[in-house]
């Protein structure tokens, strides 16, 4: 397929001993061609090097050049639109992130939909905040594009349809979508609190959503696609579950602990990732970046090396491509 494969830096390991430069080399060696740099990984790397984060970004970009790896994005600029803090403060922080994105030569700044409860629901404010962010990102060359991602536990935006409506109202050429199979799958199909692992009418809801996507989503507004699966909870999620935190959405808990690479059924993966990816990639003719963004708790203790994670990512993408092609012929 025409799509190039990237991976989030946190999806190569979340173990403190596995540094960002190690992860970059591992991704390159496995044949991955792009990487999403997670801000905290860059910060930890820079502190370990005893240099500023700006100098760290420059060193990481040089390393990516040497290893033939393209930086896809700087991520995730969280809880921005509609926050109760003054917009001037948020834009000042955004300016810092955009500076780093330019030093990394990243074309995208990833912005997940806000998920804090203490934010405005006023649509005009939300749109204005995002327009100001997009305008700031285009005020200096190279222009940075804002990849807006609907989180399944987002306060105001939790579906691709709501996100697309926001994208259309923001109405800026550098403002589009980052789509993640985990969020589509857990918003419309999966349920970690159910003994079946599925929502009521899951198949119908997902099928109808994907049909509307193919019909309604402009191809030029799909900036890139992220792939991730999810494990079924055994026992089902409840407030007594060892991973549960007071006030945290069950989908957020799910995301932090049990997101293996797509089709890793041996690890409990069970979401209809192929069906979602087929609609988002094959049926609409999307030929841009596909990025693996997983959060596998097994990576937290150092037992999974970045090399192992990178190989898993490549094998997962191979399986997804095979499955998408076979299903497209049915």
TrEMBL record:
Pfam families: AP_endonuc_2 (PF01261)
Top-rank lineage group of the source organism: Eukaryota
Gene3D superfamilies cross-referenced by the UniProt entry: Divalent-metal-dependent TIM barrel enzymes
SUPFAM superfamilies to which the protein is assigned, alphabetical: Xylose isomerase-like
Leader sequence residues: none
Positions of the Xylose isomerase-like TIM barrel domain: 24-319
PANTHER family: DIOXYGENASE, PUTATIVE (AFU_ORTHOLOGUE AFUA_6G00240)-RELATED, HYDROXYPYRUVATE ISOMERASE
Name of this chain's protein: Xylose isomerase-like TIM barrel domain-containing protein
Native species: Penicillium patulum (Penicillium griseofulvum)
């Amino acid at each position: 397929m025409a799509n190039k494969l990237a991976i989030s830096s946190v999806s190569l390991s979340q173990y403190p001993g596995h540094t960002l430069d190690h992860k970059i080399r591992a991704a390159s060696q496995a044949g991955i061609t792009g990487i999403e740099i997670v801000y905290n990984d860059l910060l930890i790397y820079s502190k370990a090097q005893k240099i500023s984060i700006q100098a760290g970004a420059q060193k990481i970009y040089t390393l990516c050049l040497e290893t033939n790896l393209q930086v896809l994005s700087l991520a995730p600029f969280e809880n921005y639109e509609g926050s109760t803090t003054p917009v001037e403060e948020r834009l000042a922080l955004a300016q810092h992130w955009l500076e780093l994105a330019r030093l990394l030569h990243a074309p995208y700044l990833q912005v997940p939909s806000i998920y804090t409860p203490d934010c405005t629901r006023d649509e005009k404010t939300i749109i204005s905040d995002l327009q100001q962010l997009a305008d700031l990102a285009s005020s200096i060359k190279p222009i940075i594009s804002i990849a807006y991602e609907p989180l399944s536990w987002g306060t105001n935006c939790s579906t691709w349809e709501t996100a697309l409506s926001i994208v259309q109202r923001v109405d800026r050429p550098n403002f589009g979508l980052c789509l993640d199979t985990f969020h589509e799958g857990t918003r419309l199909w999966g349920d970690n609190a159910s003994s079946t692992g599925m929502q009521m009418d899951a198949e119908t809801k997902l099928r109808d959503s994907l049909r509307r996507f193919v019909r309604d989503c402009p191809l030029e507004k799909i900036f890139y696609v992220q792939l991730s699966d999810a494990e079924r909870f055994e026992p089902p999620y409840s407030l007594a579950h060892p991973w549960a935190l007071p006030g945290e959405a069950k989908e957020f808990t799910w995301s932090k602990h049990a997101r293996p690479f797509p089709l890793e059924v041996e690890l409990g993966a069970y979401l209809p990732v192929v069906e979602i990816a087929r609609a988002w990639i094959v049926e609409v003719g999307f030929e841009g970046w596909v990025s693996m963004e997983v959060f596998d708790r097994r990576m937290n203790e150092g037992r999974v090396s970045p090399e192992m994670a990178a190989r898993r990512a490549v094998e997962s993408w191979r399986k997804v491509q095979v499955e998408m092609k076979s299903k497209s012929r049915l």
